Amino acid sequence: MTQPEQTPGADLHYRALERLYTAAPVNHLFESALAIEERGRSRITFQVTEQTYHAAGAAHGTIYFKMLDDAAFYAANTLVTDRFLLTTSFNLHFTKPVRMGEVVAEGRWVSGKRRVFVAEARLVDAEGEEIGRGTGTFMRSHIPLAGLPGYSPEG
């Protein structure tokens, strides 16, 4: 795999993607934060609380999916500065249940530069153990990033 090159203005795009994440209504339901430090990578910190539990007292799989999908999506969308990407498929692997505490989702772009992108993500619990991983395929949409609430390269 070739490491993507850093482009001028990339930091403005990364901060705009972080604002887009914060502005999404679904993210107001959770205590989480997105950080993008380089092209093709993202990191989301997420607080798992009892509100996300299933009946057996651990985080529901929808929480795993959300964190993995978001981390992979944002890693891929660092390569696209004009359009919103859409998830077209996502494969999950659950390796350990998680209860209360901080979980980190680390996203990484794998391939694709034009229309279809592949990215992966992994979840790490507060003890540093991997609790899940996933791989997604994302497609360039017709939705301009500039028209979405929260996305503004100027800040």
Automatic annotation (TrEMBL):
<dbReference type="InterPro" id="IPR003736">
    <property type="entry name" value="PAAI_dom"/>
</dbReference>
<keyword id="KW-0378">Hydrolase</keyword>
<dbReference type="InterPro" id="IPR006683">
    <property type="entry name" value="Thioestr_dom"/>
</dbReference>
<dbReference type="Pfam" id="PF03061">
    <property type="entry name" value="4HBT"/>
</dbReference>
<dbReference type="InterPro" id="IPR029069">
    <property type="entry name" value="HotDog_dom_sf"/>
</dbReference>
<dbReference type="GO" id="GO:0016289">
    <property type="term" value="F:acyl-CoA hydrolase activity"/>
</dbReference>
<feature type="domain" description="Thioesterase">
    <location>
        <begin position="57"/>
        <end position="130"/>
    </location>
</feature>
<protein>
    <recommendedName>
        <fullName>Thioesterase domain-containing protein</fullName>
    </recommendedName>
</protein>
